[in-house]
Specification:
With 376 residues, the chain is mainly α. Helices cover 78% and strands 0% of the residues. The protein is globular and about 60 Å long.
């Protein structure tokens, strides 16, 4: 049971990251009705893709990451395309977390320190790099603790938001921005990068049987949490919402509660940075055969270099990663799942019976969603 709890914590920590702070802003633009529709549709689509990838991993004897699975089941072209997508997506996601971390740390330490957001982000990033270098066992233990703290702190913030809740602050529908949420919401739901790590963490076959339940439970936690968080925040700030969400709550909740909000933000950023950073590092190790030190240096160094040279558009980064990278990897995972059913070299701990028509429908949904982002 405790092993399952740790696995769910890793998965929840991967999914609930920087995306949660962009969701209220983007749903305010589109309106509550389209935003919640996207969560319903994309939540179902992403859960299926998670389950597909989990089965594909369990059907494969060797330990590798998404580019390795693409090479095995889709060929050289699949590996190249997915490798570019995975590396770009993980670097983009880590960059989004880094953009927020410096600003949140500045708010947290402003009464005690004169360090700039960039300096604080550098210190924070060094600590994260060390934990990524150490690996999944340490990260799994931290995830469980940080998720408990994060949800407890968030519950306090949401309680005070609900006390100031006003339905008039909620925008129902905006036709001109109806397609806007796709990329950010897709980004906020993706957690497939953690699946190979969780499979490695679940050592024995009886433990690996818990993988399916892990993904379903994590989805059952994250989607309702996103919806409650978004409603509570928009019910307080309405059209005054900021891209990072937290700073727009300052006039309504006061400095003490904002410090709690910043603490919750840093906790969830830490969760996602650890899991995604480890996944990127292991991608370099398993699929490009780099050393642990060099893989860690690239995985942790590139996002920070991009941050230093001026890539600091938070919403734009989320939209890019969710739309372009999420769609490419999502389609690749569906195709890998289909091939692994026939070419897998291991008996999986669970097996899904999915008609081909549904697979093609999922691919069409992702592609049409990506196309819609270029029409905005």
């Amino acid at each position: 049971m405790f092993k399952l709890l740790k696995a769910v914590s890793v998965f929840v920590g991967t999914i609930i990251g920087a995306g949660i702070f962009g969701v209220p802003y983007i749903i305010n633009k589109s309106g509550i009705i389209p935003g919640f529709f996207y969560f319903l549709i994309l939540g179902s689509v992403v859960l299926l893709i998670h389950l597909f990838f989990g089965e594909a991993v369990l059907r494969t004897k060797e330990s590798c990451r998404l580019p390795g699975f693409a090479q095995k089941y889709l060929g050289a072209w699949g590996k190249i395309l997915v490798m570019i997508s995975v590396v770009s997506g993980l670097i983009g996601a880590l960059l989004a977390y880094l953009i927020l971390s410096g600003d949140f740390l500045r708010i947290l330490f402003s009464p005690f320190s004169s360090l700039s957001a960039v300096q604080l982000a550098l210190i924070f990033w060094v600590a994260m790099s060390y934990l990524i270098f150490r690996g999944i066992k340490l990260i799994a233990s931290i995830e469980l603790l940080t998720n408990i703290v994060f949800f407890s702190t968030s519950a306090v913030i949401l309680f005070f938001c609900l006390l100031r809740f006003d339905f008039q602050n909620l925008a129902a529908f905006s036709l001109s921005n109806a397609f806007l949420p796709f990329g950010v919401i897709l980004f906020s739901l993706i957690g497939w990068s953690a699946i190979p790590e969780i499979v490695d963490f679940l050592k024995t076959s009886p433990e690996k049987k818990k993988l399916k339940k892990t993904m379903i439970l994590a989805t059952a936690v994250t989607v309702p949490f996103y919806l409650i968080f978004t409603l509570a925040v928009l019910g307080v700030v309405g059209g005054n919402i900021s891209p990072d969400t937290i700073s727009s709550l300052v006039p309504f909740l006061g400095p003490k509660l904002i410090l709690l909000g910043v603490l919750a933000a840093l906790i969830t950023l830490t969760d996602s940075i650890l899991v995604l950073g480890l996944h990127l590092k292991n991608t370099f190790i398993y699929d490009l055969k780099l050393s642990n030190r060099l893989a860690t240096a690239i995985a942790c160094g590139v996002p920070f270099l991009l941050f230093l040279i001026g890539f600091r558009n938070f919403i734009g980064t989320l939209g890019f990663v969710g739309t372009v990278v999420g769609v490419i990897e999502g389609v690749a995972i569906i195709l890998i799942f289909k091939k692994a059913k026939k070419l897998g070299d291991r008996e999986p701990e669970y097996s899904l019976k999915i008609p081909s028509l549904l697979l093609y429908l999922l691919i069409t949904t992702l592609i049409l969603g990506a196309i819609s982002q270029f029409l905005i």
